């Protein structure tokens, strides 16, 4: 009987721990994606500035 009670107590704790790890990983990934998006935006804006001066310095 004691073993079954321990399993019933441990399973919700493991589920909460797994959920916390997934949410932490997703939050980290979203933060990295925001920084990448910001870098791409800056490069894109620089492309417009350089392009208005004459030539095209990138090919997309």
Provide keyphrases for this structure.
60 residues
Write down the Rg. 24 Å
List the uncertain runs. Answer: none
Distance between the termini: 67 Å
Number of strands: 0
The proportion of residues forming helix, as a percent range, comes to over 70%
The helix-and-strand class reads mainly alpha
Quick check: average pLDDT?
79
The main β sheet shows up as: none
Sketch the topology as an H/E string, one letter per element.
Answer: H
| Shape assignment | rod-shaped
Helix count from the secondary structure assignment: 1
| Strand residues, percent | under 5%
Explain this structure to me?
With 60 residues, the chain is an all-alpha fold. 85% of the residues lie in helices and 0% in strands. It is built from one helix and no strands. It is rod-shaped and about 75 Å long.
Compact description:
The protein is 85% helix and 0% strand. The chain contains one helix and no strands. The model has no long low-confidence stretch (mean pLDDT 79).
